[in-house]
Every structure is written in C-alpha cells, then in structure tokens.
Structures
1.
Amino acid sequence: EYANPRNVAAGSVRQLDPRITASRRLDSFAYDLVTSLGQKTHEEKHNILKSFGFKVNSYSRRCRTLEEVFDFHKYCQKIRQELPYEIDGVVVIVNPIDIFEKLGVVGKAPRGAIAYKFPLKQAETVVEDIKVQVGRTGALTPVAYLRPVRIGGVVVSRATLHNEDEIKRLGLKIGDTVIVGRAGDVIPDIVKVLPELRTGREKKFKMPKRCPVCGAEIKKDPDGAIYSCPNPDCPARKHRYLYHFISKGAFDIEGLGPKIVDQLVENGLVADPADFFSLKEGDLAGLERFAEKSANNLIKAIQSRKEISLDRLIYALGIDNVGEETARELAKRFGSLENLAGASSSALEKIEDIGPVVAKSIYNWFREKRNIDFLDKLKRAGVKIKNPKKPSSQKLSGRVFVLTGKMKNITREKAKEEIRKLGGKVSESVSNKTDFLVVGENPGSKHEKAKKLKVKTISEEEFLKIIKINS
Ligand SMILES: [Zn+2]
C-alpha cells in the first residue's frame, strides 16, 4: 500500500484514529533539542537527550575532519543492511551551535546540515515509450514509461527525463535498454543508455508540435530548452494548478488529493480553485466512493483553511518563478496583496534574489484580467488573507546580544524573543561582534570573556529599559 518506509511512518502519524497509529509499531530517535539548556554543540544535545531518557541514535558520531565524514559515510553504507530500519544516507551537521546558527537557512533547509545520501540504487530495464506531461505553467516534461522493474524494494514504471536536452544528452531512443537509478523517494532517473543492446527497432523521440492534452500549438522558449502549452485553459494545466493550489506549501487542505480534485473537475463542481470554497456537502453526495462522513470532513477541512497567511496565498497563485521562499520574501517586503499588486517592476527587482525575469512575471501576473477576476472571486468565496505583522520597531537592528546568568523578571526565551522582535540578534557566545552582554545573577564564563574583549555589559534592569518591559 505504501511506496516506502517514510510514507508508512508519515501515513501512520496522520491517521485520524490513534488506535491505527498505535498498531503500526512506530519508533523514533531524538536528534534535536530545541530548548537551550546551555549546550554549545550538537553533540551535547544528544548527550542531554540521552540523559533525559530519550532514545538517541547510538551510531551518531563526531567527525573532526572531512576525511572522517567520508569514512563514516562508507561505514554506514556497509552496516545499513544490518540495521533494523531503512536508511538512505547520513546527515552531516556542523557541531558548534553558534556557527550552525550563523550559517543561517535557505527556505527551510539550514546551511549547517546536509543529507549525505548513499549512491543510487540501480536496475536495468527497457524504455517502452516516452510520453509528455503538461505541468502547471504549461511546461512539457518528457517521461519515460519503463518495463516495470524492482529497484531497492519497490517497483517503478516511470522515470523523469526533465527536458529535451536530457534526452539528447543520454542519446535515448524509445525501445532502448537503460540503467535506471533511484535515490530516496524521488522519481527515478535514467542513468545511462546501453546502446550495445539495441536491436535496430528503436525509435527516435521528438517533442510534439501540439499539446497532447488540448491540441494547442507548442511554444518554445528563447533558450530552446523549455517547450510549453500556451493555452491557459488547457485542462492539463488546470488540473496541475488545482493540485498546486491545495498543496502543502499553499492552502494545505487535508484530505483533498489529486484523485478527488479530478473527480470534482470531471463532475463540473470545480473549474478554478476559488470553487473549492463554495462547495457544499450536498455537492459531493453524488460522487463515486464519497460517503456522507468523508464529504462532511472534506467540507470542514476546506472551510478551516479559508484564512490564509499572505506568503502562502502568494505561493498558491502559482505565478511563474515564484516558489515558497520568494513568496515569503514578497509577503515580508510588501505586507499586503494590494501593495504587491501595485508594485512596479523596479520595486520588485530591488528585493534580494529577485531578478528581472521574476520581477516581470510577477508584474505581468497582476495585470492580467483573468487573474484580477480570480482574486476577486477568491475574496467573494470568503478567503481571508492574514497579512504579516509589521515589526513594531527596529531600534535594535543589527545589534548582537548575549545573555548570561539568571534573570529575575523575564525568562531567557522571552528576552530572546523581545530582542529579535526589535530587530536585534541573539548569540550564544561572546565574541568581538557582540554589542551587549546582559548579565543576570550568577553569570558564567561569558562575563569574564566580555571583560577581556571589552564588550559592553548591562544589567537586567538596563536591559528591560531598552526593551521597555517593566516588571
Ligand atoms: Zn494544453
């Protein structure tokens, strides 16, 4: 029923009935400690967790050099068969917490940690056909249809070919025998073609001239790598757009998967995403395999997501080149949909990581009538946008604080929160980049170090005055 262990675990946790979850015999290791208990390294986190009685992974190890990391990776590959659970690699994480934090995050991924995966699991099979899939933006992706083959415990029958260039690079023809590789949960790739096994009956693949779904003439982008269906009403594009709209990073509607979306579209109940919000229980009653209870739950789930944060909404709109991270940045900078819609191309380009191409696609999106009408329809369907809170003041902007000792009138977590709210930063250790050391009762070695580095120290009372919280 499930493709791999990760899906079993995720699927089990998501069960509505806790008895089902309990029956799945799940287990876990603790890898992170979020609360600060004075730990300075990741290794210490594991030790603290262990002393608290959490299960920690006994294989984790501190490596002092990259050489040691490579050796450990090799070692884990050797022992993976003996483990009572499946792994697809190791996580390498920067040990000192202050450096880890300084490295920051990209999207949701911290720069201080990487998943160092094992090489692909591979198998040999035959490409029986190459078909073209139409994505949300209309882009065509060739997909290889494989003679079903088992790789790493699961049967696969499709491999992505990304684009026409990839097919050329591989020298792939329909009917070719190929090596297929699979890493983790992603769709398998074709690693290489075995031309020595050709029979002469292989056929060359050509990108279609017309959209395989709606028949519109295919457009090629100026670089020539991307082909797309330009028809905004293309059913394939529409379906993909609907899936995107309700996906995890967007409206995240529980229980509304592609199969149900397809059913809703086929029955004329949904034509664009705004229609989800006006669905009523009775509308679903006639649908195949739709019990009254599940209809009820689905409507509830949809209605519960009507209020949405601005960044999620921007992402949901599916503007070309606007991913989750860009959407977050736009929400933060513009603060409301109205401001974003009214932004000039040059204002958009001023934002970090947004170049002329992205700026243009955002600018154009808000000037197309069908999009303006759609936003209007969303509003009428009852969708409410929660704009991000403006930082009340940025008076500590760029200032670095370190806290030491126990404070009487404010918890450490609250103090950190207040500093960040005012634009300041909190660091775990004193360095010459520290602006203030806040000294509470029984300060530790940080106080000594601050004196040595001539870092300004302030008392709790002075600190509270700065952040204007009175006890
Ligand atoms: Zn089309």
2.
Amino acid sequence: MSDSLLLEQARMLCQDKGVRFTTVREQVFSLLADSNGSMGAYDLLTQLQKTDAKAKPPTIYRALDFLLEHGFVHKVESQNAYVLCNHFAEHHKAQLLICDSCGDVQEMNSSAISKALLTAAKQRDFKIVEPTIEAHGLCKKCQQN
Ligand SMILES: [Zn+2]
Ligand SMILES: [Zn+2]
C-alpha cells in the first residue's frame, strides 16, 4: 500500500473512532510509513524538526503514545524504536522478527501464538500487560550475505 493511501486510511480510522489525528501525529505516522525499518524517538525528532523547528521530545512521545494506543505502531522494546503496523485497522497483538544485522523488523500477526501465550500465562496466574513478542536473528537477505 502506498504511503498516501495508508495516511488516508489512518485519517478515516481516527474519524470513525472520534479521535483527533493532529498534524504532529500525522507527521510522525508519515515518517514511520516512509522508513524502511524501525525508528527511534530521537531519529523521529530530528526528522520532525526539519519541518517544525519547535518540536521537542515530549512532542514526539505524546504523538507516539497516541499511535501506540490506537494500534498504528508497534514498539520494538529491544531496539527502543517504533515500526508502523502493516494492518493497523486490526489493532492486534504482534510478534516481531528482528534482524540483528540490518535492523529490519518484520511483524507477524499469529492469533495462535497470542492465544498460546495467554493460556500459558494464565496457568501461572500471570497477567500480561504487554503481549508483544520479539525474536532476534537474521533476515533472509542477511543470511545470504
Ligand atoms: Zn501490526
Ligand atoms: Zn537483515
């Protein structure tokens, strides 16, 4: 899907939910849509400051909180970075395959894995707050190099 189509879809989703897709939120969304891999908050801030010189770290973190809350992005804890979700309309639980060589992040959306994790945690009386699973390794491209 092209970036402008993604943005249009995100705008419509926000309208449906009755939440505001502010300029900053749109800009951060677009930066992540343009990026090939994940981006850290400071990379995002540097990019944002090119169009909005007044942007400060809280500007970015507030926008990211919004995007996370509504399922537009996934946080990659082990990289301390963010990726745009490929199918954000579903607001799903993700499994991330992270390449340690090039930093590429592929997301999976397996309900079987999510369910298995939930069941196993429940048996241990554990309440999961953040269900994202991150697996590290080498992507297809990097295995060939
Ligand atoms: Zn996703
Ligand atoms: Zn790679």
3.
Amino acid sequence: MPVYLIGAGPGDPELITLKAVNILNKADVVMYDKLANEKILEHAPNAKLIYVGKKAGEHYKSQDEINKIIVNESKDNPNGNIVRLKGGDPFVFGRGGEEILDLIKENISFKIIPGVTSAIGAPASVGLPITHRAVATSFTVVTGHEDPTKNKKQVKWDYTADTIIVLMGIGNMKENTTEMMKYRDPKTPACVIENGTLENEKIIFGTLENIADKKINTPAILVVGNVVDVFKEIKDRN
Ligand SMILES: C[S@@+](CC[C@H](N)C(=O)[O-])C[C@H]1O[C@@H](n2cnc3c(N)ncnc32)[C@H](O)[C@@H]1O
C-alpha cells in the first residue's frame, strides 16, 4: 500500500478534500504535526495517531527523525493505510518533498493528496482576491523565516509580483517589511490574516511601513499589495 501524504487544509475542518476524508476513514496509522484543527483526526477513528510535531517542554523532532518514523511505520504495516497528515498543502512550506524523497530511497510507494494552502485559502475565504483585473496580475508566496542553517540566503525581497504573501513571517515582520520597502512604496497596503478560516480569525490592516507595529498572533499570513484595497471594498459585504 502507498503512504498517503495528505493536505489537511488551512484550519476550518470542512476545508479538506473528499479524497482525503475517504483515505482517513480507513487509515491504520496517522502521523500528524501541529494542525490548525485537530477535529480532522475524527475522520480516522480506527487509526493509531502519532504526533510528530512540537510539544511544550519536549525535544523537537528533527525532519530526519520524522522521516524515519514515516519509513518505519510503513515498513511495519506494509498492508496498512499509512497517512502523513499536514496542515494546508503538503508541498507549500510543508517539507513534503523531503519526506517523499526518503520514501523513494526506501522503495516505498506514495500518493499525494493536495490540500487548500493557507497562502491562498485564508485570503480567499475572507474575500481578499490575490489577483484582480487591472490591480494584480501575479502573486508570490514566500517564507518570512528562512532556515538559518542554509549556506546561502534565497529570499531577497525584490520580487516583482503585484501581490506578496508571506508565510511564517510574524516573528521577522519588521526585518521583512524593511527589506520590502527597498523595492516597494512604504504606503503599499498590507494586511495580516490571523487564524485564517478558524473561529478566532482576525484581520489586521496597515501599510508596509506600519503593519509590523501591530499586535499579531500566530498562525498568520501577511498580504502586501494593492489588492488589499480591493479587499476593503469587499470585506464588509462578505
Ligand atoms: C510551516 S508553514 C505550513 C504551511 C502549510 N503547508 C500551508 O499550505 O498552509 C506554517 C505557516 O502557514 C501559515 N498558516 C497556516 N495556517 C494558517 C491559518 N489558519 N491562518 C493564517 N496563516 C496560517 C502561517 O504563516 C504559518 O506560519
């Protein structure tokens, strides 16, 4: 049986695909990390649930350790339905590619079930169009927290897309917006979507020059660009 790498969606437990639910229903093992909504695990009533994410006060499992757990579980249950469940989409800052490459090394087959990424799903659900005729013809999704152990920085903030969507960027918001202002007008509209698609969702408006001064909780994404002004027109009617 293949290992299923499944996207759980951005938070609202109904924003998961039917295909994902059908596989979870018959899952024998589910390995998951911090999900925006653990209600999704209710779709796997008979599965052994293995949490591989961060727990307060405990050692944080490295990606290598997680990869090993996935490989071992699939070897121990060659005929079982093994699921690796990830928030959003597994391939959008989800390290899904690394997990798949380790399965390939071990000759273990796999299937990927895409999920609604928070990068697109959170703006869409509040009514923020990340592209809009005559306003934005392109968007970039970028990490706001580049792995400090990398040899070479890849994020340069000189992106030419009309809309910039920053994930994992709340801790570094001041540094990131300062960098962006080298290439964009400081008055460019910006907004943060906190806990997108969840009951405690919050939207915070600002501009590139002041959004970092607002009080923001995680998880959250930052959206920068003139589409934020379009969103202001839509918001109160959504
Ligand atoms: C490690 S990345 C994983 C992204 C995930 N694979 C996806 O496609 O949404 C985690 C980041 O996603 C964003 N994020 C995830 N869920 C979110 C939510 N419900 N609301 C706002 N941002 C969210 C935050 O920027 C968070 O720091």
4.
Amino acid sequence: MPDTDSSYVHPKCYANTRGGCSTTISGEHYISHALIRLYTFDDPGVRIQPTPNYRIPVGIQPRRFVANVLCTAHNNGLSDADGAALAFATFLRSIALRYMNGAGTWGEPDEVEVSGDDFQRWVLKLLITHAAADVFTERNGERVTTLVSDEAIDLLLDRAGWPSTWGLGVTGDLSNAHLSFDPFTRIETVTSDWWSAAPLIKHDPKLLFGGVVDLAGVSFTLCLFNQSEALLHDDEINPLHRVTQRPSSLSWVLNGVPKTVRFRWSDPWEHVPVTFTMQR
Ligand SMILES: [Zn+2]
C-alpha cells in the first residue's frame, strides 16, 4: 500500500491528491497485464496493436501498453483490483472455451467468489487511467480531455465509502442494448473482443462521471453520481436504464445448471442476485 505518512506529491501521478506518492512513475497498464496474458494464451511473442486514440502507431509487447500516469506506490496499492478482474475473466473464459457456443460441454454447476469492492475499484481504475492519459474519444473520433474528481481518487484508494446511489451496475433488463451479458456465444469474446471502456462525461467543465466497461462479454456500468433517476429513463441513448446496482451474484443457467460469480461486498447496501437463463 502507499506510504500514507508521505506527503510527497508526484506531479504526474493522478492519485496524488493527498500525497502518499513515491518519487518514481510506473507504467500503468491501460488494461491489466495479467488479463492480456490470459487472452493471448501467455504467448511471449505476441504483439498488440492499440486503436489510434492511444497514439501507439506500431504493434507492441503487452507489457508496453502503459500510460505514465501513476506513481509506483499508488500503482502497487491497486493490485487487488487487478486480481478481482482476473478471477472474474478467468472463470468465464474457461467455461466459454469448454462450451464452444454449444459445440462443447457446459459441465457441472460451478462458481467463483470475487471481491465486489475490488472489482468495482478495477472498473474505476480503468476509466481513470484512460481519462488521465487523455485517450478517450468523442463520437466524432476527437480525443477528449476529462478532469478526474478528488472524490473519484478517494474511492479508488479506498479512503471513502461509496454512496448507495453511486457505483457498479449490470444490466437488469435485456432490452437495454447498451449492455452485454453474453460471455459464451461469440468466439470473439474469448479471443479479440474481450474488453472495452467508454466514459460517461459531465460537461462544463468536462468531468469523468463514470463509464461502461466490458470484460469477458459482460458490461459493467460505473457511476460517480446519484444514478437513481437515470435508472428509470427509457431514453434510447441511456445506458443506465434498469441497471441493477452491485449484484450479489451473476448466474448463467443452461438446462438447470448454473455457473455463478459471487460478489463479496463490505458496504452496507442491498445486493441482489442476477440470473440469466440461457437457451440452446
Ligand atoms: Zn502517487
């Protein structure tokens, strides 16, 4: 964890709002290195070609897909967040590879437990890293610079509790076309199309307000504001319509056999299970 006695503020570290920085900047991965390794079969010769907004014109080794926006101390303090995302993706991906969209086997009931707190922080970290490195783009392809609030940093570093109306969510209504809940029927989900990140931005001034992050075929919303009203608006452009906040579990059930991710939460808010029944 960061040395909280330190008052050092590294000017390039986005988490420097209350000091605690080390003097060295680390390369913070845009998307967890362990996840890239998982999805590239840990092939040491693999190269990735980021989309143009990352300003990396050539294919690179996964370890170099980084932004210099976080000091070493704060980066090291966030490794549990990466671990939660890795556990989630590893579980769903292994099922998808066995199931092969119906050509393989679904197998026995299975479950994994993941810290919801850490997973929520991983989603926030991914969004903040992209914001701090100015790599988000608007619909016209222009890069957009967004501010990151001090509150967002306090939540990321676990210095503050999440308000009940803020935070992580998943789709609670399959008619919401913005949010995916399908880890198993598209082969791209286990090979090339396994993550994405899009911000929610508040304007004047432009502030990172949350976002939508996909991992392993599942969309997660994250709100740094009271989302109560947004959950009700059935406006077509609203990704938050009928989102279920902070689920206690996500289950996919085929022929009565469930595969379940259980989320462990330390906050005092209500957590409900979300189940998707699959059809062959
Ligand atoms: Zn720092």
